[in-house]
Amino acid sequence: MLLVACVGCTEPAGDALEPLQSSPSARHGNAGPARTGAPTTTSEPSSGTGSGTGPLPAPEREPGSVATGAAADQARIVEGVLRRYDDALTSLLRDPGTAARVDEPTPSGWRATIAPGAILADDIGDVAAARQAAGEVVEPPAGQDRSYLHRVVSVDVSGPDAPADRIEFTWCGWSPGIVRDAATRLVVDDRVAHTTGTGAARSIDGTWLLDSLDESTIDLMAPGSPDPCRAGR
User: Does some domain include residue 5?
Assistant: First the structure.
């Protein structure tokens, strides 16, 4: 099952962000929020709130750190990239058959959020093809506008030697999306998922795009469970 997001879930990135301490996972290009790839850790559905991400301490930055400005500035860039990606992925999986129709606006939308050559694009194509083959679509719950939501947890502020056109980050993902049979409209899976992972954004000709989104953990939870990524915010 795939993820879904809430209306207004993306909140401005603030100073509650910590410098990234570890490098991204080896495999780049997981197909995004929960239930789209092969997680490292999986738990059974639960009725609890999962492992929520609470407020993090403000980073201490050294003069001359990557990109002009603070970790919060980099986080805002990544939040914008992730919002565009989540919107495009939600649109694609409402009608996964559009992934194969290059003249449709939906494929252009999601492809326009991913850096050229990124494995992530292949992963998303595979996810869409699998949904189409199964005769399934993924839709946001009533009153919500996205099926996928990623939030920045920390960004890389490793110093002046880091490339100015790349930002590495960790993220918290939430997916309350509903998988339905495309023909009958019956619910196939309405569990929600909480995921965590690492990623990278890259600037190409002045436009920031998603270069990787790797999933580290996934927690499948009971329908209607609250979003643990919002805990403490």
Answer: no
- List, for residues 183-221, the tens digit of each pLDDT value: 999 999 999 999 999 999 999 999 999 999 999 999 999
Number of domains observed in the structure of the chain: 1
Decide if 3 is inside a domain.
no
3-class DSSP state of 171: strand
Q: List the CATH number of the domain containing 69.
A: 3.10.450.50
Q: Is 188 exposed, middle or buried (0-12, 13-18, 19+ CB in 10 A)?
A: middle
- Give the side-chain half-sphere CA count within 13 A for 115: 24
CA dihedral (30, 33, 34, 35) in degrees, to 10, reads -70
Q: How far apart are CA 55 and CA 11, in angstroms?
A: 13
pTM over 0.85: no
Here the tokens at position 122 are: 């292949």
In a domain, 2, yes or no: no
Helix, strand, coil shares, percent, the chain, to 5:
25, 30, 50
